[in-house]
TrEMBL record:
<dbReference type="InterPro" id="IPR004430">
    <property type="entry name" value="3-IsopropMal_deHydase_lsu"/>
</dbReference>
<dbReference type="GO" id="GO:0009098">
    <property type="term" value="P:L-leucine biosynthetic process"/>
</dbReference>
<keyword id="KW-0432">Leucine biosynthesis</keyword>
<comment type="pathway">
    <text>Amino-acid biosynthesis; L-leucine biosynthesis; L-leucine from 3-methyl-2-oxobutanoate: step 2/4.</text>
</comment>
<dbReference type="InterPro" id="IPR018136">
    <property type="entry name" value="Aconitase_4Fe-4S_BS"/>
</dbReference>
<keyword id="KW-0100">Branched-chain amino acid biosynthesis</keyword>
<comment type="function">
    <text>Catalyzes the isomerization between 2-isopropylmalate and 3-isopropylmalate, via the formation of 2-isopropylmaleate.</text>
</comment>
<dbReference type="InterPro" id="IPR036008">
    <property type="entry name" value="Aconitase_4Fe-4S_dom"/>
</dbReference>
<keyword id="KW-0408">Iron</keyword>
<keyword id="KW-0456">Lyase</keyword>
<keyword id="KW-0004">4Fe-4S</keyword>
<dbReference type="InterPro" id="IPR015931">
    <property type="entry name" value="Acnase/IPM_dHydase_lsu_aba_1/3"/>
</dbReference>
<feature type="binding site">
    <location>
        <position position="406"/>
    </location>
    <ligand>
        <name>[4Fe-4S] cluster</name>
    </ligand>
</feature>
<feature type="binding site">
    <location>
        <position position="409"/>
    </location>
    <ligand>
        <name>[4Fe-4S] cluster</name>
    </ligand>
</feature>
<feature type="binding site">
    <location>
        <position position="346"/>
    </location>
    <ligand>
        <name>[4Fe-4S] cluster</name>
    </ligand>
</feature>
<keyword id="KW-0479">Metal-binding</keyword>
<comment type="similarity">
    <text>Belongs to the aconitase/IPM isomerase family. LeuC type 1 subfamily.</text>
</comment>
Length: 472
Protein backbone atom coordinates (compact mmCIF):
# COMPACT_ATOMS: atom_id res chain seq x y z
CA UNK A 1 0.00 0.00 0.00
CA UNK A 2 1.21 3.49 -0.86
CA UNK A 3 1.95 6.22 1.64
CA UNK A 4 0.43 9.62 2.18
CA UNK A 5 2.67 12.65 1.97
CA UNK A 6 2.22 13.15 5.71
CA UNK A 7 3.40 9.61 6.52
CA UNK A 8 6.48 9.94 4.28
CA UNK A 9 7.65 13.02 6.15
CA UNK A 10 6.65 11.73 9.59
CA UNK A 11 8.43 8.39 9.12
CA UNK A 12 11.60 10.17 7.99
CA UNK A 13 11.65 12.10 11.27
CA UNK A 14 10.81 9.38 13.79
CA UNK A 15 13.79 8.86 16.10
CA UNK A 16 12.13 6.05 18.05
CA UNK A 17 8.76 4.34 17.90
CA UNK A 18 7.39 1.85 20.40
CA UNK A 19 3.89 0.37 20.40
CA UNK A 20 1.64 1.96 22.99
CA UNK A 21 3.80 5.07 23.32
CA UNK A 22 4.06 8.35 21.42
CA UNK A 23 6.70 8.54 18.70
CA UNK A 24 9.84 10.56 19.36
CA UNK A 25 9.75 13.01 16.46
CA UNK A 26 12.78 15.02 15.34
CA UNK A 27 12.11 18.72 14.71
CA UNK A 28 14.12 20.41 11.97
CA UNK A 29 13.35 24.01 12.94
CA UNK A 30 11.84 25.52 16.07
CA UNK A 31 10.30 28.99 15.74
CA UNK A 32 9.89 31.03 18.91
CA UNK A 33 8.44 34.42 19.84
CA UNK A 34 8.00 36.47 22.98
CA UNK A 35 4.68 35.08 24.25
CA UNK A 36 5.20 31.32 24.66
CA UNK A 37 8.96 31.15 25.19
CA UNK A 38 9.69 32.84 28.58
CA UNK A 39 8.48 29.94 30.75
CA UNK A 40 10.39 27.47 28.57
CA UNK A 41 13.62 29.42 28.98
CA UNK A 42 13.00 29.55 32.74
CA UNK A 43 12.57 25.78 32.76
CA UNK A 44 15.93 25.27 31.06
CA UNK A 45 17.55 27.72 33.44
CA UNK A 46 16.12 25.94 36.48
CA UNK A 47 17.46 22.61 35.24
CA UNK A 48 20.83 23.95 34.14
CA UNK A 49 20.26 22.95 30.52
CA UNK A 50 21.36 24.72 27.33
CA UNK A 51 19.31 25.00 24.16
CA UNK A 52 20.35 21.76 22.47
CA UNK A 53 20.61 23.10 18.90
CA UNK A 54 20.37 26.91 19.01
CA UNK A 55 21.11 27.27 15.28
CA UNK A 56 17.88 25.38 14.56
CA UNK A 57 15.88 27.85 16.64
CA UNK A 58 14.56 30.98 14.94
CA UNK A 59 13.37 33.84 17.16
CA UNK A 60 11.39 36.98 16.36
CA UNK A 61 9.19 39.50 18.15
CA UNK A 62 5.69 39.77 16.72
CA UNK A 63 2.68 39.41 19.05
CA UNK A 64 3.36 42.24 21.48
CA UNK A 65 5.04 44.76 19.23
CA UNK A 66 3.44 48.12 18.36
CA UNK A 67 2.86 48.88 14.67
CA UNK A 68 3.67 52.59 14.97
CA UNK A 69 6.98 54.09 16.11
CA UNK A 70 8.80 50.81 16.59
CA UNK A 71 12.01 52.78 17.18
CA UNK A 72 10.55 54.06 20.46
CA UNK A 73 10.16 52.11 23.74
CA UNK A 74 7.02 49.95 23.82
CA UNK A 75 4.30 51.76 25.78
CA UNK A 76 2.36 48.81 27.20
CA UNK A 77 4.21 47.48 30.23
CA UNK A 78 3.47 43.76 29.74
CA UNK A 79 4.29 43.93 26.04
CA UNK A 80 7.55 45.72 26.73
CA UNK A 81 8.45 43.19 29.41
CA UNK A 82 7.82 40.18 27.15
CA UNK A 83 9.82 41.62 24.25
CA UNK A 84 12.68 42.57 26.60
CA UNK A 85 12.69 39.05 28.08
CA UNK A 86 12.92 37.50 24.62
CA UNK A 87 15.95 39.69 23.90
CA UNK A 88 17.58 38.69 27.20
CA UNK A 89 16.84 34.99 26.81
CA UNK A 90 18.09 34.77 23.23
CA UNK A 91 21.34 36.51 24.20
CA UNK A 92 21.84 34.17 27.17
CA UNK A 93 21.12 30.96 25.25
CA UNK A 94 22.90 31.85 22.00
CA UNK A 95 19.85 32.20 19.73
CA UNK A 96 19.83 34.75 16.94
CA UNK A 97 16.89 37.12 17.35
CA UNK A 98 15.09 39.01 14.61
CA UNK A 99 13.86 41.68 16.98
CA UNK A 100 12.47 45.16 16.41
CA UNK A 101 14.67 47.05 13.97
CA UNK A 102 16.12 43.89 12.41
CA UNK A 103 15.56 43.63 8.63
CA UNK A 104 14.18 40.08 9.08
CA UNK A 105 11.72 40.92 11.89
CA UNK A 106 8.08 40.04 11.38
CA UNK A 107 5.31 37.59 12.14
CA UNK A 108 6.93 34.22 12.74
CA UNK A 109 4.81 32.46 10.07
CA UNK A 110 5.63 35.11 7.49
CA UNK A 111 9.39 35.34 7.94
CA UNK A 112 10.04 31.57 7.80
CA UNK A 113 8.77 31.17 4.24
CA UNK A 114 10.06 34.49 2.87
CA UNK A 115 13.59 33.83 4.16
CA UNK A 116 13.76 30.30 2.74
CA UNK A 117 13.84 28.73 6.20
CA UNK A 118 10.59 26.88 5.48
CA UNK A 119 11.14 24.06 2.98
CA UNK A 120 9.43 20.87 1.78
CA UNK A 121 9.88 17.62 3.67
CA UNK A 122 10.82 19.18 7.01
CA UNK A 123 9.23 19.42 10.45
CA UNK A 124 8.46 22.77 12.09
CA UNK A 125 6.97 23.68 15.44
CA UNK A 126 6.27 26.86 17.35
CA UNK A 127 4.38 27.79 20.48
CA UNK A 128 1.66 29.19 18.23
CA UNK A 129 -1.30 27.36 16.74
CA UNK A 130 -0.95 28.90 13.28
CA UNK A 131 2.37 27.15 12.69
CA UNK A 132 0.26 25.06 10.30
CA UNK A 133 0.96 27.86 7.78
CA UNK A 134 4.33 26.29 6.92
CA UNK A 135 2.59 23.12 5.73
CA UNK A 136 1.91 24.92 2.45
CA UNK A 137 5.43 23.89 1.43
CA UNK A 138 4.80 20.17 1.90
CA UNK A 139 6.08 20.13 5.46
CA UNK A 140 4.74 18.89 8.79
CA UNK A 141 4.18 22.00 10.87
CA UNK A 142 2.07 22.43 13.98
CA UNK A 143 1.69 24.48 17.12
CA UNK A 144 2.85 23.27 20.54
CA UNK A 145 2.34 24.25 24.18
CA UNK A 146 4.87 25.99 26.38
CA UNK A 147 6.03 22.76 28.10
CA UNK A 148 6.66 21.31 24.64
CA UNK A 149 8.59 24.44 23.66
CA UNK A 150 10.94 23.61 26.52
CA UNK A 151 11.10 19.98 25.37
CA UNK A 152 12.20 20.97 21.87
CA UNK A 153 14.71 23.49 23.22
CA UNK A 154 16.27 20.79 25.38
CA UNK A 155 16.24 17.87 22.92
CA UNK A 156 15.24 19.06 19.39
CA UNK A 157 12.60 16.31 19.64
CA UNK A 158 8.96 15.94 20.67
CA UNK A 159 6.81 13.12 21.98
CA UNK A 160 3.91 12.93 19.52
CA UNK A 161 1.05 10.58 18.72
CA UNK A 162 0.60 10.13 14.98
CA UNK A 163 -2.67 11.84 13.99
CA UNK A 164 -5.23 10.51 11.52
CA UNK A 165 -4.97 11.65 7.90
CA UNK A 166 -7.65 13.56 6.00
CA UNK A 167 -7.67 14.64 2.36
CA UNK A 168 -9.64 17.71 1.32
CA UNK A 169 -9.84 18.09 -2.44
CA UNK A 170 -11.09 21.22 -4.20
CA UNK A 171 -11.53 21.21 -7.97
CA UNK A 172 -12.87 23.65 -10.53
CA UNK A 173 -12.70 27.31 -11.48
CA UNK A 174 -13.11 29.98 -8.82
CA UNK A 175 -15.47 32.88 -9.42
CA UNK A 176 -14.00 36.35 -9.85
CA UNK A 177 -13.44 37.99 -6.48
CA UNK A 178 -13.00 34.61 -4.73
CA UNK A 179 -9.60 33.66 -3.35
CA UNK A 180 -7.76 31.42 -0.94
CA UNK A 181 -9.30 32.97 2.19
CA UNK A 182 -12.77 32.32 0.81
CA UNK A 183 -11.86 28.71 0.03
CA UNK A 184 -10.77 27.93 3.57
CA UNK A 185 -13.64 29.84 5.21
CA UNK A 186 -16.03 27.90 2.96
CA UNK A 187 -14.50 24.54 3.91
CA UNK A 188 -14.64 25.37 7.63
CA UNK A 189 -18.26 26.54 7.31
CA UNK A 190 -19.14 23.17 5.78
CA UNK A 191 -17.33 20.86 8.22
CA UNK A 192 -17.48 23.12 11.33
CA UNK A 193 -14.79 24.44 13.64
CA UNK A 194 -14.36 20.90 15.02
CA UNK A 195 -14.63 18.94 11.75
CA UNK A 196 -10.91 18.29 11.47
CA UNK A 197 -10.28 17.31 15.09
CA UNK A 198 -7.75 14.49 15.35
CA UNK A 199 -6.59 14.83 11.75
CA UNK A 200 -3.71 16.24 9.76
CA UNK A 201 -5.16 17.53 6.49
CA UNK A 202 -3.69 17.32 3.02
CA UNK A 203 -5.24 19.80 0.58
CA UNK A 204 -5.35 18.68 -3.03
CA UNK A 205 -7.16 19.25 -6.31
CA UNK A 206 -6.63 21.53 -9.30
CA UNK A 207 -8.07 24.56 -7.48
CA UNK A 208 -5.44 24.24 -4.75
CA UNK A 209 -2.73 23.66 -7.37
CA UNK A 210 -3.74 26.89 -9.12
CA UNK A 211 -2.98 28.96 -6.02
CA UNK A 212 0.26 30.85 -5.47
CA UNK A 213 2.41 29.90 -2.49
CA UNK A 214 0.97 32.82 -0.55
CA UNK A 215 -2.55 31.58 -1.25
CA UNK A 216 -1.56 28.08 -0.15
CA UNK A 217 -0.16 29.53 3.09
CA UNK A 218 -3.53 31.15 3.76
CA UNK A 219 -5.25 27.78 3.31
CA UNK A 220 -2.86 25.88 5.60
CA UNK A 221 -2.81 28.72 8.15
CA UNK A 222 -6.48 28.16 9.01
CA UNK A 223 -6.34 24.36 9.22
CA UNK A 224 -6.27 24.76 12.99
CA UNK A 225 -9.61 26.61 12.78
CA UNK A 226 -11.35 23.39 11.79
CA UNK A 227 -9.76 21.63 14.75
CA UNK A 228 -7.08 19.91 12.68
CA UNK A 229 -3.56 19.36 13.98
CA UNK A 230 -2.22 20.95 10.83
CA UNK A 231 -2.46 21.04 7.05
CA UNK A 232 -0.10 20.54 4.15
CA UNK A 233 0.05 20.73 0.37
CA UNK A 234 2.38 18.60 -1.78
CA UNK A 235 5.26 20.63 -3.24
CA UNK A 236 5.37 21.27 -6.97
CA UNK A 237 7.12 23.65 -9.38
CA UNK A 238 5.30 26.59 -7.79
CA UNK A 239 6.89 25.64 -4.47
CA UNK A 240 10.35 25.16 -5.93
CA UNK A 241 10.23 28.50 -7.77
CA UNK A 242 9.17 30.29 -4.59
CA UNK A 243 11.97 28.88 -2.42
CA UNK A 244 14.77 29.27 -4.99
CA UNK A 245 17.21 32.07 -4.26
CA UNK A 246 15.83 33.04 -0.87
CA UNK A 247 18.26 34.03 1.87
CA UNK A 248 18.51 30.68 3.66
CA UNK A 249 17.49 28.37 0.81
CA UNK A 250 20.00 25.69 -0.23
CA UNK A 251 22.54 26.77 -2.86
CA UNK A 252 24.54 25.02 -5.61
CA UNK A 253 24.75 21.23 -5.33
CA UNK A 254 22.75 21.29 -2.12
CA UNK A 255 19.90 22.95 -4.02
CA UNK A 256 19.91 20.24 -6.69
CA UNK A 257 19.86 17.51 -4.04
CA UNK A 258 17.04 19.23 -2.18
CA UNK A 259 14.89 19.60 -5.30
CA UNK A 260 15.41 15.93 -6.19
CA UNK A 261 14.10 14.98 -2.75
CA UNK A 262 11.21 17.43 -2.85
CA UNK A 263 10.01 15.89 -6.11
CA UNK A 264 9.40 12.60 -4.25
CA UNK A 265 7.05 14.30 -1.77
CA UNK A 266 3.49 13.45 -2.77
CA UNK A 267 0.81 11.02 -1.68
CA UNK A 268 0.99 7.80 -3.65
CA UNK A 269 -1.95 7.03 -5.90
CA UNK A 270 -3.00 4.11 -3.68
CA UNK A 271 -2.39 5.93 -0.38
CA UNK A 272 -5.26 5.58 2.08
CA UNK A 273 -6.67 8.45 4.11
CA UNK A 274 -8.88 8.07 7.17
CA UNK A 275 -11.28 10.61 5.71
CA UNK A 276 -11.73 12.25 2.30
CA UNK A 277 -13.81 15.35 1.47
CA UNK A 278 -14.48 16.88 -1.95
CA UNK A 279 -15.63 20.40 -2.86
CA UNK A 280 -16.48 22.21 -6.09
CA UNK A 281 -14.79 25.60 -6.45
CA UNK A 282 -17.78 26.93 -8.43
CA UNK A 283 -19.91 26.71 -5.27
CA UNK A 284 -17.69 29.15 -3.36
CA UNK A 285 -18.58 32.83 -3.23
CA UNK A 286 -16.91 35.59 -1.20
CA UNK A 287 -17.23 34.48 2.42
CA UNK A 288 -17.81 36.31 5.70
CA UNK A 289 -18.30 35.11 9.27
CA UNK A 290 -21.23 36.17 11.42
CA UNK A 291 -20.55 34.42 14.74
CA UNK A 292 -17.87 33.72 17.30
CA UNK A 293 -15.94 30.85 15.75
CA UNK A 294 -14.55 30.54 12.20
CA UNK A 295 -17.05 27.80 11.35
CA UNK A 296 -19.88 30.33 11.60
CA UNK A 297 -19.44 31.59 8.06
CA UNK A 298 -21.71 32.22 5.08
CA UNK A 299 -21.44 33.26 1.48
CA UNK A 300 -21.76 37.03 1.24
CA UNK A 301 -25.23 36.81 -0.37
CA UNK A 302 -26.58 34.31 2.16
CA UNK A 303 -28.45 35.10 5.37
CA UNK A 304 -27.55 34.32 8.97
CA UNK A 305 -28.96 30.84 9.71
CA UNK A 306 -32.11 30.42 11.81
CA UNK A 307 -31.51 29.29 15.40
CA UNK A 308 -34.19 26.64 14.92
CA UNK A 309 -32.13 25.02 12.16
CA UNK A 310 -29.63 23.78 14.76
CA UNK A 311 -29.99 20.82 17.10
CA UNK A 312 -31.66 21.70 20.40
CA UNK A 313 -28.41 21.20 22.37
CA UNK A 314 -26.63 23.76 20.13
CA UNK A 315 -29.30 26.45 20.07
CA UNK A 316 -28.32 28.10 23.36
CA UNK A 317 -24.68 28.66 22.37
CA UNK A 318 -25.75 29.76 18.89
CA UNK A 319 -28.16 32.35 20.28
CA UNK A 320 -25.42 33.54 22.63
CA UNK A 321 -23.05 34.05 19.69
CA UNK A 322 -25.64 36.05 17.73
CA UNK A 323 -26.39 38.17 20.77
CA UNK A 324 -22.69 38.91 21.25
CA UNK A 325 -22.41 39.92 17.59
CA UNK A 326 -25.59 42.01 17.69
CA UNK A 327 -27.12 39.99 14.87
CA UNK A 328 -30.38 38.05 14.46
CA UNK A 329 -31.82 35.08 12.60
CA UNK A 330 -32.16 35.38 8.83
CA UNK A 331 -30.28 38.69 8.70
CA UNK A 332 -28.37 39.64 5.56
CA UNK A 333 -24.95 41.06 6.32
CA UNK A 334 -24.78 43.02 3.07
CA UNK A 335 -25.16 46.68 3.96
CA UNK A 336 -24.23 46.13 7.61
CA UNK A 337 -22.32 49.26 8.78
CA UNK A 338 -18.83 48.54 10.08
CA UNK A 339 -16.32 50.58 12.08
CA UNK A 340 -12.88 49.08 11.46
CA UNK A 341 -11.07 47.15 8.77
CA UNK A 342 -7.93 45.18 9.59
CA UNK A 343 -5.77 43.91 6.74
CA UNK A 344 -2.94 41.85 8.21
CA UNK A 345 -2.12 38.83 10.43
CA UNK A 346 -0.22 35.64 9.57
CA UNK A 347 -3.18 34.73 7.35
CA UNK A 348 -3.21 37.72 4.99
CA UNK A 349 -0.30 40.13 5.43
CA UNK A 350 2.01 39.09 2.62
CA UNK A 351 2.98 41.16 -0.40
CA UNK A 352 0.35 39.57 -2.67
CA UNK A 353 -2.38 40.48 -0.17
CA UNK A 354 -1.18 44.08 -0.09
CA UNK A 355 -0.89 44.24 -3.88
CA UNK A 356 -4.42 42.94 -4.29
CA UNK A 357 -5.84 45.50 -1.87
CA UNK A 358 -3.80 48.35 -3.39
CA UNK A 359 -4.96 47.48 -6.91
CA UNK A 360 -8.58 47.62 -5.74
CA UNK A 361 -8.41 50.83 -3.66
CA UNK A 362 -6.32 52.82 -6.14
CA UNK A 363 -8.28 55.97 -6.98
CA UNK A 364 -10.81 55.31 -4.21
CA UNK A 365 -11.03 56.53 -0.62
CA UNK A 366 -12.23 54.89 2.57
CA UNK A 367 -15.61 55.73 4.05
CA UNK A 368 -15.57 58.40 6.75
CA UNK A 369 -17.01 56.04 9.38
CA UNK A 370 -14.23 53.45 9.00
CA UNK A 371 -10.75 53.22 10.51
CA UNK A 372 -8.40 51.10 8.41
CA UNK A 373 -5.23 49.35 9.58
CA UNK A 374 -2.94 47.82 6.96
CA UNK A 375 -0.17 45.91 8.72
CA UNK A 376 2.55 44.12 6.71
CA UNK A 377 3.57 40.71 7.99
CA UNK A 378 7.27 41.50 8.07
CA UNK A 379 9.90 44.16 7.56
CA UNK A 380 10.66 42.55 4.20
CA UNK A 381 7.01 42.92 3.13
CA UNK A 382 6.94 46.52 4.37
CA UNK A 383 10.07 47.42 2.41
CA UNK A 384 8.81 45.72 -0.74
CA UNK A 385 5.43 47.48 -0.47
CA UNK A 386 7.20 50.83 -0.22
CA UNK A 387 9.52 50.01 -3.13
CA UNK A 388 6.46 49.18 -5.25
CA UNK A 389 4.70 52.40 -4.24
CA UNK A 390 1.86 50.60 -2.50
CA UNK A 391 2.26 52.82 0.57
CA UNK A 392 1.42 55.88 -1.54
CA UNK A 393 -1.71 54.21 -2.91
CA UNK A 394 -2.77 53.23 0.62
CA UNK A 395 -2.08 56.71 1.96
CA UNK A 396 -4.18 58.36 -0.77
CA UNK A 397 -7.04 55.96 0.03
CA UNK A 398 -6.86 56.62 3.79
CA UNK A 399 -5.25 53.23 4.47
CA UNK A 400 -1.99 54.09 6.28
CA UNK A 401 0.67 51.37 5.99
CA UNK A 402 1.85 50.51 9.47
CA UNK A 403 4.91 48.60 10.70
CA UNK A 404 5.04 44.78 10.95
CA UNK A 405 3.51 42.71 13.73
CA UNK A 406 0.51 40.60 14.68
CA UNK A 407 -1.40 43.82 15.40
CA UNK A 408 -5.20 43.62 15.65
CA UNK A 409 -5.34 39.87 15.05
CA UNK A 410 -5.38 39.53 18.82
CA UNK A 411 -5.73 41.90 21.78
CA UNK A 412 -2.12 41.57 22.96
CA UNK A 413 -0.73 44.89 21.79
CA UNK A 414 -1.83 48.49 21.26
CA UNK A 415 -3.98 47.72 18.19
CA UNK A 416 -7.31 46.78 19.76
CA UNK A 417 -10.84 47.12 18.41
CA UNK A 418 -13.06 49.04 20.89
CA UNK A 419 -15.97 47.33 22.65
CA UNK A 420 -19.09 46.93 20.54
CA UNK A 421 -17.40 47.97 17.30
CA UNK A 422 -17.48 45.86 14.15
CA UNK A 423 -14.22 44.97 12.40
CA UNK A 424 -14.01 43.26 9.02
CA UNK A 425 -10.74 41.41 9.50
CA UNK A 426 -8.44 39.33 7.32
CA UNK A 427 -7.19 37.50 10.41
CA UNK A 428 -8.05 33.93 11.40
CA UNK A 429 -10.16 34.04 14.58
CA UNK A 430 -13.40 35.73 15.55
CA UNK A 431 -13.68 34.52 19.15
CA UNK A 432 -15.33 36.75 21.74
CA UNK A 433 -12.87 39.51 22.63
CA UNK A 434 -10.19 38.20 20.26
CA UNK A 435 -9.47 41.67 18.83
CA UNK A 436 -10.19 43.51 22.07
CA UNK A 437 -12.71 43.18 24.95
CA UNK A 438 -16.27 42.90 23.55
CA UNK A 439 -15.12 43.67 20.00
CA UNK A 440 -17.04 42.11 17.09
CA UNK A 441 -15.07 40.43 14.32
CA UNK A 442 -16.22 39.51 10.82
CA UNK A 443 -13.59 37.38 9.08
CA UNK A 444 -13.18 37.89 5.36
CA UNK A 445 -10.70 38.02 2.48
CA UNK A 446 -8.50 41.03 1.76
CA UNK A 447 -10.74 42.03 -1.17
CA UNK A 448 -13.94 41.81 0.89
CA UNK A 449 -12.27 43.77 3.69
CA UNK A 450 -11.12 46.45 1.25
CA UNK A 451 -14.60 46.76 -0.22
CA UNK A 452 -16.05 47.23 3.27
CA UNK A 453 -13.48 49.94 3.98
CA UNK A 454 -14.46 51.86 0.84
CA UNK A 455 -18.22 51.59 1.31
CA UNK A 456 -18.34 51.66 5.12
CA UNK A 457 -20.46 48.52 5.16
CA UNK A 458 -20.34 44.82 4.31
CA UNK A 459 -20.24 44.65 0.53
CA UNK A 460 -20.13 41.96 -2.15
CA UNK A 461 -16.82 42.64 -3.89
CA UNK A 462 -18.28 41.21 -7.09
CA UNK A 463 -20.55 44.24 -7.46
CA UNK A 464 -17.42 46.40 -7.80
CA UNK A 465 -15.77 43.98 -10.18
CA UNK A 466 -18.85 43.90 -12.42
CA UNK A 467 -18.97 47.72 -12.52
CA UNK A 468 -15.28 47.89 -13.42
CA UNK A 469 -15.84 45.37 -16.22
CA UNK A 470 -18.68 47.52 -17.62
CA UNK A 471 -16.50 50.63 -17.49
CA UNK A 472 -13.58 48.91 -19.19
Amino acid sequence: MGQTLFDKIWDAHVVSSNEGFPDILYIDTHFIHEVTSPQAFDGLRDRGLPVFRPKQTVATADHNVPTWDQHLPIKEELSRYQVDMLTKNCAEFGIELYGLGHPYQGIVHVIGPELGITRPGCTYVCGDSHTSTHGAFGAIAFGIGTSQVEQVMATQCLLQQRPKRMKIEVNGQLQKGVGAKDIILYIISKISAAGGTGYFVEYAGDTIRSLSMEGRMTICNMSIEMGARGGLIAPDQTTIDYVKGREFAPKGEEWDKAVAYWQTLYSDADAQFDSELYFDAADIEPMITYGTNPGMGIGITQHVPETASFEAKEQGSYAKALNYMGLHDDESLIGKPIDYVFIGSCTNSRIEDLREVAAFVKGKHKADNVTVWVVPGSKQVQIQAIEEGLDKIFEAAGFPLREPGCSACLGMNEDKIPAGKYCVSTSNRNFEGRQGPNSRTLLASPLTAAAAAITGKVTDIRSFLQQEELVS
